[in-house]
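Thread title: Can someone regenerate the structure for this chain?

I was given the following input by a collaborator and told the matching structure tokens would be attached. They weren't. Posting the sequence so someone can regenerate them.
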Amino acid sequence: MSLPHQYVDRQSGAVRDEKLFGDLLVRWLYAPVRERTPWLFRALTGRRMSGFLAWYQYDAALACRVAGNRRFLQECGVDFDECLAPPAALDTARKVFERQICYWNCRPSDSGHGTVLSPADARMLIGSLADHQPLYLKDKFFFFEELLGNRPPWQETFRDGDFAVFRLTPDKYHYNHVPVSGTVIDFYEIDGDFHSCNPTAIVRQVTPFSKNRRVVTIIDSDVPGGSGVGKVAMIEIVAMMIGDIVQCYSAHRYDDQQPLKAGMFLRAGAPKSLYRPGSSTDVLIFEPGRIRFDEDLRMNQMRAGVHSRFASGFGKPLVETEVQVRSPIARAVSTSPHSSTGGVL
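Best answer:
Regenerated them for you:
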């Protein structure tokens, strides 16, 4: 019998058990298959198989089950009052996982100066790349240099900085939102694999986030109208059955969606991209000394009596906190004189 995986709900402070989708398959894939038949493991975590599994799970096998099946939607944690579309319109699994919500009502946010917002509805861990910091977690979830790709300027910019990992589970709202206001100064894709973001897979497949296919956006928030927390790297990472990261930034709700490019100004809290479909991960990296994570996130991560597979696998307290998209997660330590108040979105 496998160990449970628990996290802390930020709103209530309660400890919750996570329902791990496909847990038996993941534990089989990342133990016997990876060790005994590496060629099969590589095939199952490749682009072609990931695409096939996504089609089977979200477009074929489940389509007839989802149609009119309110219980299925409730089991996925879908709050019908949040959704833009009526329940009857969510008639395939893909539509469920790509749903839009009235975030301006159900995820209100103050995106003021010096504030960093959560980019997703997700389970979150925080860490530091500096070995003198209590949150030091180097080479646990990713190799820093590998994660950012062959971009020497950014490796120097973010070396010894702080980071946050946001794990989106399959039941979550799968739009990413902008964590800080600022100007896009670099935007690029890095090819890679499609490893699962199940906690067991992350622990057993060393640093999977720097091996998966991903999109990197570098935002300079030290500009007029920016959040004033320095440069921020936002890395959007695919996982098993995630074939696409659709860049669809919209300054107002979901209207007038447009692809990202260097030179664009992004407003904190606005929709930025969509994962299609399943589970996935966001990573934010900050310049050293520019932000401090909210104290409740730091305390939750060290909380005793919570059964976390990350804590068991890495041998140190690592308890996730479930956070809502657009909720504050960090504050500026030092700010730029060029930034002004971001306001409310």
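Residues 109-332 form one domain.
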